[in-house]
Amino acid sequence: MIVTLIIVCEAGFWVLLAAGLAVRYLLRMPRTGLALLLCEPLLEAALLAVTALDLRNGADPDWTHGLAALYLGYTAGHGHRTVKWLDGLAAHRLDGRPRVRPPRYGMARARHEGRVWLGTLVAAAVATGLLRLAMWYVDDPARTGSLTDWEHIAWRAAAIHGLIALTYLIWPKKAPEPAGGAGNRATGHDEAAAGDRAGTYLSPPGTHSTSPTSLFAVRARMNRRSDRRLR
């Protein structure tokens, strides 16, 4: 029953989200769309109530109750960020607004990953609180071993996510060089070489240089002078 309700809540989350965004941007009714989005926490409240009633009726705590706690924790930690991201995507696709993308490189990316990890910490803390509340409610350590295992799973996931987020701080991801960077450098070298050649051709008499271009320029000037004398 609990698993079925979790599936129903997840499906209801996406149905309400799609309906809220469609009403907000397609029908141009932002208040009604916002009201639909605000109905989403009611699904989690229903799941929490049914889980508590199931335990009250004498059901033994098992993996379904632990999964429900983790689902509620994830919704508390990452639900708002998920809705905000999809709202920005809908505003870009349906309303023509510029799309706001999270940073991808450098310390800005590291700070972004740190904020996402804080959401995972909130999820683990909420799940732990719900699991502890269920353990206190049952008040039988012999029956709540599975709930303790789910508590360990929540913090193990938070630790792994924290290590991944830390890598962006220790080894910041560098932005790729512009596609024209190498071409610009090559063009700069060519322009510098052209400038050197121009400077060689325009160098006043009496300057000494051993480069082939300067010798060629001197020989050309000597030939022009000899042609003038013959004339």
Core attributes:
231 residues, 8 helices, mainly alpha, elongated
Summarize, please.
The protein has helices at 2-25, 30-38, 40-56, 63-95, 106-138, 145-170, 181-201, 212-230. It is mainly α and 231 residues long.
Give a verbal description of the structure.
This protein is elongated. With about 230 residues, the protein is mostly helical. It is built from 8 helices and no strands.
List the helices and strands and how they pair.
Blueprint: H1 2-25, H2 30-38, H3 40-56, H4 63-95, H5 106-138, H6 145-170, H7 181-201, H8 212-230
Helix pairs in contact: 1-2, 1-3, 1-4, 3-4, 4-5, 4-6, 5-6
Q: Given the C-alpha coordinates, what overall shape results?
A: elongated
Strand content: under 5%
Low-confidence stretches: 182-214
Helix segment count?
8
The structure class reads mainly alpha
Q: Report helical residue fraction.
A: over 70%
**What sequence of helices (H) and strands (E) makes up the elements?**
HHHHHHHH
Radius of gyration: 35 Å
> Please, what is the average pLDDT?
80
Distance between the amino and carboxyl termini:
112 Å
**Main beta-sheet strand count, sense and barrel state:** none
The count of strands amounts to 0
